[in-house]
Structures are given as C-alpha cells and as structure tokens.
C-alpha cells in the first residue's frame, strides 16, 4: 500500500466533515478549502466538540472535522476503501454515501447532497445537516456566537438496575460523583470505555461515566462481553500456581478450591456474587450449549461421586482455568480428555 493510500484510509475511518447551512457564511470567511477568519464552536447535545483542524468554508457551506460524531449520535460506521463508500447505520436507518458524489442513499432512497464529499487537508468531508438530519438530529447555526449546535435524537435504551454514581471520569477512586442514578432510570450508552466503564448520557442531557458491571445496568453487547471475559481471565491469571486446598475459605486468597477460586474471580472483577459451592453455582445464570461457549462461561463437571462437584472458567481457545490439584494449584488446561467425559453443563452469568 502506498503512503498516500494508507493516509487516506486512516483519515476516512476516523474523521468526517460536516456542513451547516449557507446562511452560516459570514463576512471575513474565505471561500474554497481555506480556514475561517473567526473560530467556530461546535456543540453536540450541549457538549463542546473540538475539531482536529480549523473550520473551512466551501462555496458558502461551513465544513468542520468532527471525529466520532456518528458514534456520539448512536450510529456505527464502516468504510469500503475500494469503492470509497461510507456507510452509517443507526437503528432502522442506513445511510450510504460515496465520496465525491451529489447523491446519497437513505434506506435505499436516493437523496441529493448539495455539497459533495471530498478530501481536504487529509480529512474526509460530508455535509453536516444532511448527515445529522438523516440520523434524526437537528442542526442550528447561531450567527452572533459563530456556534453550530447539533441536537441528536437519542434513544435511552438502557435501564439502571441498581443505584449507581454518574462520575466525571471512568474511575471510582478519582472521578467525582456528578449524580446518583436510581434504579429504573433510563440512560443512553455513548460508548464502551473498557470492560468496567460506560460513557453515558442521561435524559436531562448530562453526560458522565457509570460502571459497566452487570449488576448496575441491563446494557450488554458482544464487544462488552468479550472485554469482560478478557478481564475475568486476566484477573484469574494473577493467581496461577496458588495452592489448592479443599474447603478453602473464600475470605482469603492464599489457597483456593475450585468454587472459591471462581467465586473470587467473579466477585473481584465484575461484582458478580456467586454461591460458595459448585453445585449451587450451577443454578445461577442460564444454560448454554457446549458448542456456544464464550470466554467467562462456567463449566461444571462430575467429581467425588457427585453429579456436580467441580467448576472451571472457560478461557477461550478450548482452554479452561481452574484448580483441583495440590501439585498444580490454579492453572490452565485443555478442555478435552477427562474433562469432556465428565462435563455436565455450562452456565452464563453475565
């Protein structure tokens, strides 16, 4: 891939430029792909967005780079480098646009684009009003303050399960509490910060961060469950080699038996409070097929002449993380041989 093509692909995936109406043009603004004389402020739902470059004026249309604007409005983006087509999907709306053309497709219907998309200063440009309104948002230009205000159509799709703090940063220790969100409150998830935090917006347009642990909200997604599965296994690895002791107390970490280990990992990582013994742990969550396992699922086996007497965590790639042996302590092991023969059921608890 040439240097120019690589740069083009990078910026197209990361940035999109938008336009406001022609009446946004003011005296002192230059024409064409030149920077404006006066700075323009851009707000999405009253939160200021900082463009990577200065706004431009193209034939009376103000263009600004607004990286991540689609995601903040709840849309998902894909880019086809060969055809130079950007696709944005939000709910039941799919917008498809080929850079440089005067027509876009919204759910299969052709719609005119007054100012065609283009590449300028290494950024992809598409019209703000057209894109935003297609996604259900509204755009306003405030002449006296040179401000663009975008109000997104937000679907408050997630419910708070248990009272939780809305924090200023994704950090329970350092982030200040902005508000207490009570059980039943509806929120919109802007993005998944990591396995443990979500950036969200409340119905009164306040933004902040809440815990992604499953006891606090009903939000879930394939990407979040993958991150949380990774977090569980990473935490469990900290105890590799920890000695096995049948009946080990769950109040300490110097020794484990199979179920106290699993209980500790889930409690410390995701605040999932599992029962103490494997037989009772096998009653939690929902049953999943052995052919549908994902990282973090619990696997149960016969042991000690009990129908269920052992538990392990599925670690992906046909590996399990568990403890049962004084010689090995906590360790990884292939999910095969005796474990396949002794397998009883799998349960998913997040």
Automatic annotation (TrEMBL):
It comes from the Bacteria. GO terms for molecular function: cysteine-type peptidase activity. Belongs to the peptidase C40 family. Residues 1-24 form the signal peptide. InterPro entries: Cu_amine_oxidase-like_N (IPR012854), Mao_N_sf (IPR036582), NLP_P60_dom (IPR000064), Papain-like_cys_pep_sf (IPR038765), Peptidase_C40 (IPR051202), SH3-like_bac-type (IPR003646). This is Copper amine oxidase. The keyword Protease applies. It comes from Paenibacillus azoreducens. Residues 153-219 form the SH3b domain. GO terms for biological process: proteolysis. Keywords: Hydrolase, Protease, Signal, Thiol protease. Residues 226-350 form the NlpC/P60 domain.
């Amino acid at each position: 891939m040439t240097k120019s093509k690589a740069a083009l692909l990078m910026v197209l995936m990361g940035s999109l430029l938008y336009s406001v109406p022609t009446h946004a043009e003011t005296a002192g603004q230059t024409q064409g792909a030149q920077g404006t004389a006066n700075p323009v402020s851009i707000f999405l739902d009253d939160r200021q967005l900082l463009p990577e470059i200065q706004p431009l004026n193209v034939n009376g249309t103000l263009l600004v780079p607004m990286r991540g604007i689609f995601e903040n409005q709840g849309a998902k983006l894909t880019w086809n480098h060969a055809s130079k087509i950007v696709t944005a999907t939000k709910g039941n709306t799919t917008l498809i646009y080929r850079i440089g053309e005067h027509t876009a497709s919204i759910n299969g219907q052709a719609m005119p684009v007054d100012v065609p998309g283009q590449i300028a200063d290494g950024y992809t440009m598409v019209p703000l009003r057209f894109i935003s309104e297609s996604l259900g948002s509204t755009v306003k230009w405030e002449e006296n303050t040179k401000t663009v205000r975008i109000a997104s159509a937000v679907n408050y799709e997630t419910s708070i399960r248990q009272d939780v703090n809305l924090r200023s940063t994704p950090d329970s220790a350092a982030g200040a509490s902005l508000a207490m969100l009570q059980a039943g409150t509806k929120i919109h998830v802007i993005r998944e910060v990591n396995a443990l935090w979500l950036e969200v917006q409340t119905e009164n347009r306040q933004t902040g961060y809440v815990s992604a642990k499953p006891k606090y909200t009903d939000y879930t997604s394939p990407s979040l469950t993958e991150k949380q599965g990774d977090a569980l296994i990473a935490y469990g690895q900290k105890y590799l080699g920890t000695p096995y002791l049948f009946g080990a107390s769950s109040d300490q970490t110097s020794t484990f038996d199979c179920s106290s280990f699993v209980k500790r990992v889930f409690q410390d990582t995701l605040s999932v409070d599992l029962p103490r013994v494997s037989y009772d742990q096998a009653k939690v969550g929902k049953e999943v097929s052995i052919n549908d396992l994902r990282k973090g699922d619990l696997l149960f086996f016969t042991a000690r002449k009990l129908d269920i007497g052992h538990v392990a965590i599925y670690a992906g790639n046909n590996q399990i993380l568990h403890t049962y042996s004084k010689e090995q302590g906590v360790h990884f092991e292939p999910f095969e041989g005796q474990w396949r023969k002794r397998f009883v059921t799998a349960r998913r608890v997040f």
